[in-house]
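Researcher: Next entry in the queue.
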Amino acid sequence: MKELYRSITFIILFLFQVLVLNHIHLFNVATPMLYVIFILGFERNYPQWASLLWSFSLGLAVDVCANTPGAGAATMTALAMVQHYFIELFVPRDAADDFSIHISTVGIKSYSIYSSILVTAFCLVYFSLEALSFFNFQQWLLTVVASSLLTIALVLVVDNLFNRKA
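Model: Structure for this entry, 166 residues:
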């Protein structure tokens, strides 16, 4: 059942990113990268090979439609490799093996820190790969910071809407 939910989430995030969010460029610097929320939702002991495969697939699918050759796939894969370590910092010690980090499970403060770290790392790597140079450092830095802030805000809103306790 969880894999069916994950597949539906994959398709929805892919379509929303490609059809809507890739066409938003606030002030020509901030692009929301909401599909990163897919990685944030992996459970505590989810097999790393599976998270790498899911993340690479989503990144590659977005790359194909966004004409960013490999930037999304490489960044999503790299983030899936480190998410496993970051999740351990925020999960309570007595939590179940299938514990998933959400605002409703760890609180707004912990979830904000967790998502901010991973989203900022995603934006940093993604826009570095996309630019392939630091020639225009100020523009690159502005894009990373603005896209990170916009994406973090969207991640917090989406997680709060869809992962509430009953």
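Model: The CA atoms of residues 18 and 66 lie 7 Å apart.
Researcher: Noted, moving on.
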